[in-house]
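<goal> How does this chain fold?
<sample>
Here is the protein in question

***
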Amino acid sequence: METQTIVEALFLGLLEGLTEFIPVSSTGHLLLAGHFLGFESNGKTFEVLIQLGAILAILTVYSARLLKIARDLPNDPKARRFVIGVLIAFLPAVFIGVLAHGLIKAILFESPMLICTMLILGGLILLWVDRLDLKPRYTDAMDFPLPLYLKIGLFQCFAMIPGTSRSGSTIVGALLLGADKRSAAEFSFFLAMPTMAGAFALDLFKNRNILTFDDVTLIGVGFLAAFISAVLVVRYLLGYVSRHGYGLFAWWRLVVGTVGLVALILMR
């Protein structure tokens, strides 16, 4: 196995973990990086399985909180309502994801130009929303009204278009619907748990006949890199956005999308 390939796997794993929970589109970054590096694993095993590193990262960081919610479920109406709210927010993505999975993977995921365009468009939207003088009505993700959970879930469906960002869609939706910056980001974490686990399971099932484990070392390197980098992001993101907002991520999207477009045009 070439050293260069291991370095690429490490880079892509870090990229997955660093971008999964911030509003810049981890899928968009991975697809663009893979396109320009010419990186391909057998049967797309690598791309599917390193997502598990990011899923385990958020479960690890939020383990104490999740256990508390689970313990409180029988006796605490607030805990029960929150779990129901997360499930309500998750349902639109389930419906669209199952129906349109083939179309999304076969057509939208094969268009680097579309990814760059969505990175730029999403960056402009995020920059606009971050600069709005919004008056938050909700400061705790566990206290959102049930209809608000559903509306945020509908916003999440925009992330079916690669380059849009799952966390970006949910955060922008929550901000526009009255959440403050911290609770918007935190709810995107909670919603990520069933959404990412569901998408991972669906990918695994759809690709069950072509997945191979020939590149176990590459998968292990990418998985570990994704796990470690995602843990760091989840631990520090809420504090950062509470103090500084989302402007940095908006500009990052604009830079990456623009550089990607220029590179694609020059390579034609």
